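Okay, any thoughts on this one?
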Amino acid sequence: QLQASGGGLVQAGGSLRLSCAASGRTFSSYAVAWFRQAPGMDRNFVAAIGMNRMGRPVLYADSVKGRFTISRDNGRNMAYLEMSSLRPEDTAVYYCAAHPSLIRSSLASQTAYSYWGQGTQVTVSS
């Protein structure tokens, strides 16, 4: 089970940190990703981090590279998405997702993830 939090209203150029809390005892064996869905749009990949034994590969969508950072704390069963230099086009509902033992080539594919959080709204005002 995943629980996303940390969304809110922020001005353009501001920062937010999203959190994803996971239940279970094998979190370190799961890949974790963030996806987002803007109104009237498809849900799109934002960032992903692989599991420990893969060396925690990290992937980002081109639109967020250099502005967003994904991380994880396996001891606390938590994943995070640090977002900075936010833009109005970053406005969306952000979802965290997880799946065990995903290979690197599947990290950006939302169909590869079987566990999803409920979403948290991020609104960036201009």
About this structure: The mean pLDDT is 95. The longest strand covers residues 92-100.
